[in-house]
Design goal:
With 262 residues, the chain is mainly alpha-helical. 79% of the residues lie in helices and 0% in strands. The longest helix has 38 residues. It is globular and about 70 Å long. The N terminus is likely disordered.
Length: 262
């Protein structure tokens, strides 16, 4: 009897992927210690860490994180739901897709930053305008991936479902949507990046709290260390949310071999 060997995979190569950032941080710190960079313009990792601890001890960083995260989650949820619903209708019904095509092709190239002053004028500088900006930024990524996922459903699945005389609703519910789910999750993962980009853009222009405000306020005070704390915090939170979406994807799509191995 032949023995099959199973390859052990290092869990997501997470620790291996930390080597390059660790080396860069070390080189950065050495350059700062030896006066190769001006720490009053580009602070050292040690200075950034000290600024981080100072903001955490005062509670200011937590406050800004909570405000931005709340805005992102509300806007992301709104944009994601609208993107999935609109993308599903456009992917399934050609007539609806043709009716929406011209409007979408005009609206999609507009940068999200261009919407910020418009929405502030319409809705004021409160939370509503920021959430709408985030929803718009999320919407496009989700929409395009949902449409693409539905349109590229394997024809063999549709032929088999037709062979078993499934109704159109059953085909959509049991064949089309499950097959398009990986693309939907891809859109959601891309959308979270767009959501953070949108909220920071909105907070940089008009806000009195949030990570975007922290970055802008630190720049005005010529304090690069707190500014970089805000920038790095955005990256870390975005990474955490992306990982959570990936875990949800793997749990929901257990049947998908590519998802399980990725």
């Amino acid at each position: 009897m032949s023995k099959t060997k199973t390859k052990k995979k290092f869990p997501d190569y997470f620790f291996f992927s930390l080597i390059v950032p660790a080396i860069l941080v070390l080189l950065w710190q050495l350059a700062a210690n030896n006066g190769l960079i001006r720490v009053n313009i580009v602070p050292s990792p040690e200075g950034i860490w000290e600024s981080f601890l100072k903001q955490v001890s005062k509670g200011t960083l937590q406050k800004h994180i909570f405000v931005s995260l709340r805005r992102v989650l509300f806007g992301y949820a709104l944009g994601g739901v609208l993107g999935i619903a609109t993308g599903t209708l456009m992917g399934l019904f050609r007539l609806f897709e043709r009716a929406m095509r011209f409007l979408i092709e005009i609206m999609r190239p507009i940068p999200i930053v261009a919407w910020v002053p418009v929405l502030i004028l319409w809705s004021g500088i409160g939370e509503r305008s920021k959430i709408i900006v985030i929803a718009i930024g999320t919407f496009w990524s989700v929409l395009l991936n949902v449409i693409d996922g539905i349109r590229h459903v394997d024809k063999k699945y549709l032929e088999v479902s037709t062979l078993f005389m499934k109704s159109r609703i059953e085909v959509i519910r049991k064949v089309v949507l499950p097959a398009a789910t990986p693309s939907i999750f891809t859109g959601l993962r891309i959308g979270i990046g767009a959501a953070w980009l949108s909220v920071i853009g909105a907070e940089l222009i008009a806000a009195s709290s949030g990570l975007g405000f922290l970055i802008s306020f630190s720049r005005e005070l010529a304090q690069p260390a707190p500014m970089l704390v805000g920038v790095l915090t955005i990256g870390i939170i975005g990474w955490v949310i992306n990982r959570l979406i990936q875990l949800a994807e793997r749990h929901i799509l257990k049947w998908n071999v590519n998802i399980r191995q990725g």
